Every structure is written in C-alpha cells, then in structure tokens.
Amino acid sequence: MRIVSLVPSWTEYLLDLGLENQVIGRTKFCVRPEKMVRSIPIIGGTKTLHIDKIEALKPDLIVANIEENDREQVEACQQFCPVLLTDVRSVESALIEAERIAAAVGKSESGARWTRQIQDAWGAARPIHSKAAYVVWKDPLMVAGDDTYINDVMRWWGIHNIGEQWNNGRYPQPPSHEWQKTNADWVLLPSEPFPFSQKHLSGFDDHLGTALLVDGEAFSWYGSRMLHAATYLDDLAKTMQKTSHQN
Hints:
- It is a single chain.
- The chain is of the alpha/beta class.
- The protein has helices spanning 8-16, 34-37, 51-56, 71-77, 91-104, 108-122, 149-156, 176-179, 216-220, 225-228, 230-246; strands at residues 3-5, 23-25, 61-65, 83-86, 130-137, 142-143, 159-161, 186-190, 210-214.
- 38% of the residues lie in helices and 15% in strands.
- β3 (61-65), α4 and β4 (83-86) form a beta-alpha-beta unit.
- α5 (91-104) packs antiparallel against α6.
C-alpha cells in the first residue's frame, strides 16, 4: 500500500506502526521520527498542499485531518484517491482514530498494542489541580478553546483550561479587558504553532499567571506521540500542581 500522510501526528504514527516502506509522501511539518522522514518526499504544507505532486505519487490512501488540512484541498485529493479523514477533539477520539488508521493500513494488531500502551501510560484523568491559559498565537493573541484536543489533554492531566470561557470559535481571541482579568495559575506558551521562546516570557503580566514554556507537540500531537510524551506531561502536571499549591 502506498500512503501519503498530510498530518504530522499521523505520519509519526504510521512510521511507528512499521510502515516506513509504505509512506511515500508527507508535509514539510511531518518531522518525526526525524531520521525516518528524511527520505520521504515533501508534498507541501498541511494547508498548502501541492495536489499535483500528491497525484503523481499514485497513492492508494491519503491520511488527512479536518483541523490540520484545508477542506478544498482534501476534496481535490478525493478525486483521485481514497482519503481517510480523521477528526480528533479529545483523548478518546485520538485513540479511536488511531485504531481506525491501523485497521485501514492492515496493522490492526499493532494499532491495538499502541493504544493499550498509551492508555496504560496516561492512566485515568487526574483531578483538577490548577488553571491555565494555553496560548496558540501571539499577535493576535489566540488561545485553545473548549472544542479542541489541547483542551482535553489539559483536562486529562488535571489542568483547567480557562480558554473554555470564550466560545467564539475553537481558538478564540480573548477581548483585552477580559484577558487582563483571567487570574490563572499559569499561562502556557507552547513551542508550536507559534514558536514561543524565552524572550516571550516577559510579555505576560504576573497577574495573568506564571508564564511557562511547554512542548507544543505533547499537547497537540496525537497517535504515538501520546506515548512518547506521557512522561513529560506527567512530570509537568506534577510540577504545576506543586507550584500552584505553594502559591
């Protein structure tokens, strides 16, 4: 089977399933596993696909995602190849979609093993121990809202997402006067999609919560990244809980 993946999370997962010889196309953001993806042709960005390049690869299956990919481009791909379109908005749906992909590529048993390992590593959802804003973009300021995978990952690890209060879209732009009154324990600044770094920490006032740089992949990538990131998320949640209680 010849597979093109339009989703970084799923590219890593497909390769972790042992399909390095079947994945024949990826986006420029599909960077994991680092060594394995180097030899796979790039077919554009997640929302800037080169449809002609994808078609030229003659894939048997294209793996896409409702949030990651542009609808019109996905529909263009459907004209010449079956597209497995995923929709991940929760921890549970991430596991369901992982097994669906594994079944579609003939790796059901391997997929089931991965989901069992993820479930064992993640365990049960933690009690809420702190509240935080998860900032996805700097200018304009955008945060993760309630109908997102990020939101459910936060909930699972005991972090209440204050972005839930703004319901104008999945990634709302909080009004300035409301943002200044958030009074969270933390403001989480991820490494992606906006590449927050040390220089951005001072841009958030103390009364908004302590600004903290976090691994964006741990919060927004699903598939096998959920297992790879479990220890990081567990350590981070414990640190946040301890520090929140000290404050």
